[in-house]
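Title: Prediction job returns without error message
Component: structure pipeline
Severity: low
Priority: P3
Assignee: unassigned

Description:
Job completed but the reporter wants confirmation the result is attached to the right record. Sequence as submitted:
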Amino acid sequence: MPIALQYWKSPVGELILGSFNNTLCLADWRYRTKRTCIDTRLQQALQATFVFQDTPILQQTRLQLQEYFDLKRQTFELPLLTVGTPFQKQVWQALLALPFGSTASYAQLATAIGNPKAVRAVANANGANAISIIIPCHRIIGTDGKLVGYAGGVQTKQYLLSIEAPSLFTDSLHYR
């Protein structure tokens, strides 16, 4: 079974969307630095190749993402297939628990998964997330409130956080 792909232009950049066996396995920034690494991980783990075609899951994903950007959706209702190590999946599950409009630091996320010393590993797992926005890795900020790295770029992260909680920005690089 192939991984069906489509590109979708969001207001802040182009995403590559992928579905496998009626689940969403990819919603990631098309031009991110780890693009090849993530694509290879998906193809090897699922023993599948990429095919450009549309599917009902990809249609639902585009619709729900558009609703998110139009401020009509705060949670996503899509079947997800995460591909990674057990630790990465644990981090991604913790990200899914972060409510719309909220943020956490890597240290808080490490504590939330019961491993407070794993801050660097949590940061790496966050960066390996292949289902951006839907698994909200953009909600992770620095301990000091600064916006730290994001696969879609810090400006994109700022935009996503500002549509979720616009009153929480103190300036262009800090979040309250």
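Comment from assignee: result matches the submitted record. The chain has two domains: 3-69, 86-168.
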